[in-house]
Amino acid sequence: MTSPNRYDVTDWPVGDAATDIGEVINSIIADIKRRQSVTADGGKPGAVISVPPGDYHLRTQVLIDISFLRIEGSGHGFTSSSIRFNVPEEQWPDLHELWPGGSRILVEITDAAFRVERAGSPRISSVEFSNFCIDGLHFEQDGSDLHPENTYVNGKTGILVASANDSFRVNGMGFIYLEHALTIHNADALSVHDNFIAECGNCIELRGWGQASKLTDNLIGAGFRGYSIYAENHGGLLVTANNVFPRGASSVHLSGVTRSSVSNNRLHSFYPGMVVLDDDSSENLVAANHLLRDLEPWTPFLDIDNGRDDTFGLLYVSGSNNSIIGNHISEVVDSRRIRPTDATPVVIRLATGTGNYVATNHVVAVNARAKSSGSAFEAQVDALLTTEASESLPVTSVRIDPTSSRNTVLDSGTETEVDLDVTLNAFRPTPS
User: Fold this and answer.
1) What 3-state class would DSSP assign to 337?
2) What are the chain's domains?
3) CA nearest 222: which of 196, 246, 191, 253?
4) ∠ CA 46-191-26 to the nearest 5 degrees?
5) Is 397 helix (H, G, I), strand (E, B) or coil?
6) Radius of gyration of the chain (CA)
7) How deeply is 9 buried, as exposed, middle or buried, from its count of CB atoms within 10 A (0-12, 13-18, 19+)?
8) What is the reported pTM?
9) How many whole angstroms separate alpha carbon 148 and alpha carbon 140?
């Protein structure tokens, strides 16, 4: 028996999902609210809205103001638009596919495709997005010399949660070519799990404040101006088992975040400032991550950076009582491209704060001659698999600025690789 609380966008009598799925979903939400208008002993169960495989243009913003709503598709549909847009157009007819697929929503508006917002009490709860693709279609010219499709700018957002929320889930989704993929304000017990969020200006942004949330098992890659993972004023945040691709201005950026964990992630960046803890981010654990910093090998993005020089630090801390333990950090760069010229790159930098604990981190620094290629896939794989080098690269594995004190550094660099004031900090060098 078909439940009255399960909807299919292709069967709904109002609007045409292929032409404007936003109009259709808004009409379905209005029907749910009409039918579940009275609070009874059984509560308001909410509903499931199903999006079958296919292309659905969105010309009307979806406004969600009910709890217990699940919007689900039948495939995240991600495929690289960036690679295709950087293939000569005369080669497009020979490509197996040109666009993302699965249950794909094509965002035609310069705004958020899905806006979730409700005032009053209780907070909106248990809204789920699952297993469909949100595609921003194109980026736009930004006044630079970049190809318009490489700017990561178009004013489009995939999902915007604008009000306080509880127990939201974003699982198995695909986001592509959006300036902001997923922006969530004031989250409590949020789960962002097993999504493919790449070729977006910014991928995951947790804004305002929040607690007890998790970002796990995602494949993520932002643009050179934006954040792959960003969180502000959060407590009890778990960032674990994510695979973060390069080109984002940062892999993980925490601002005013406390008592949270960044662990067991694989993080890859083309720029300094891969992991940033700032605005007094304190009592956090950064452990057992693999950080790789190398250089951009793909021709369309050569000579682009995030504006930070190599003395900024791959892992930058402005906060107190953080533990940075057991991370493997690979710095594989061409010494001729270090900025400023002749500087010694900094790996872990404690800029401000006290009581930070840095222990048993392994730094591998290699001077590698930069190569480039017109093939994004081949260039990146070749760079990842190359371990031969003619010489090691001198680095400062840990630097503690004079504005930071009473820190402990153990077995994270030799005496010549660690820069600190031993009268203000505890230090045990790695044997050389």
Assistant:
1) helix
2) 1-245 (2.160.20.10), 262-432 (2.160.20.10)
3) 246
4) 35
5) strand
6) 23
7) buried
8) 0.94
9) 5
Q: Which pLDDT tens digits describe the chain residue by residue (432 residues)?
A: 478 999 999 999 999 999 999 999 999 999 999 999 877 676 889 999 999 999 999 999 999 999 999 999 999 988 888 777 778 888 888 888 888 899 999 999 999 999 999 999 999 999 999 999 999 999 999 888 888 888 999 999 999 999 999 999 999 999 999 999 999 999 999 999 999 999 999 999 999 999 999 999 999 999 988 999 999 999 999 999 999 999 889 999 999 999 999 999 999 999 999 999 999 999 999 999 999 999 877 676 667 788 899 999 999 999 999 999 999 999 999 888 889 998 999 999 999 999 999 999 999 999 987 665 555 455 555 655 565 656 899 999 999 999 999 999 999 999 999 999 999 999 999 998
Q: How far apart are the C-alpha atoms of 414 and 432, rounded to whole Å? A: 6
Cα of 311 vs its chain's centroid, Å: 24
